[in-house]
């Protein structure tokens, strides 16, 4: 059976669909699905057409695959409606929105122990992917400047990360012509560690990117130990290699749940950090942040000035026009929750992750790989020697019949023969929902166990992995 593809599937639909104008006296009419109609229609009718179609999407509250926030409280929803039309790039027209963005940068710089939180540079982005691109560009540009000052070539830059890195870093290396050096994970080394880093770096390395919350399993890579190894490397070779921490998820977890963990700007070698405001920053998509340790860590030639919006203002984002609502919602959360509130929200998520991982371990079929002790994310695989007539892809599909979206996917290169399932516990996933999920999980397993003979598998096309 061919792999499902959304575009091909859409083309199999009739090219016209009927419009039943619920709020007019005209009869039903046909309209092209793929061409713009000559005449418009009542707003209520257009709304109903779109509303009916998206009702076929999954229930966001039952989506245990995504890291992205799927719930905000009613006051935040009201604020979003008040602010969605503000253009974040137009700082002359919306000066208070710009001022609030600046406050958020200062708050994050202070939270991550910047030595100069009131003067360092940072910016909001559409998400961590854009933030990573900016962090990576700053690494490359600083490396190029240093090499030029030494009279050395700049044609072979490389960047080092584990094979479990998020796909944005593959894109960065491809788009900006930097050689990606992957340190493969293994059962003995399941994440980027000092030994793997030292095997990959050289004088052309623009930076090392440890992950604070690996997407596949939720674990923290040891930033402090990697930095210490690079300190020793510099003492031996004279080569100074900076670190960018991809803290897309952990940047809003570690400061509250693991305050004694050293991973941020307390380490002088850490020059920049990115985080997703729309993940554990608890803001609806899309919002990211990137902060530099000190202002001089962001090369000046990456900052542009524009005058055609009414003032001479600096910009160093990749995107331009976008809504300022998410930035305002981030500040709302900072005011609404404070440090104690963020702790309570993240701790509740972690407790539910610990509870679920323990219950799943005790079911007998599974081996827990991570239990949510870092970020509230955990993963499991089928036990060695446990050979039911179904696999984790079958279990993922069966859970969809109850509405639950739980991805099954292979681990990254180095451990790709291992298939796992993963749950992301987010704000809004209550203990009651956790119990309901466990009930449905047991029912799904009972059903799969009852099927005689092996189920047909298409593992290559069954990857249900979502970032």
UniProtKB/TrEMBL annotation:
The keyword Lyase applies. Its cofactor is pyridoxal 5'-phosphate. One of its GO terms (molecular function) is glutamate decarboxylase activity. Its EC number is 4.1.1.15. Keywords: Decarboxylase, Lyase, Pyridoxal phosphate. It comes from the Bacteria. InterPro entries: Glutamate_decarboxylase (IPR010107), PyrdxlP-dep_de-COase (IPR002129), PyrdxlP-dep_Trfase (IPR015424), PyrdxlP-dep_Trfase_major (IPR015421). SUPFAM superfamilies: PLP-dependent transferases. It holds the Pfam family Pyridoxal_deC. It catalyses: L-glutamate + H(+) = 4-aminobutanoate + CO2. Belongs to the group II decarboxylase family. This is Glutamate decarboxylase.
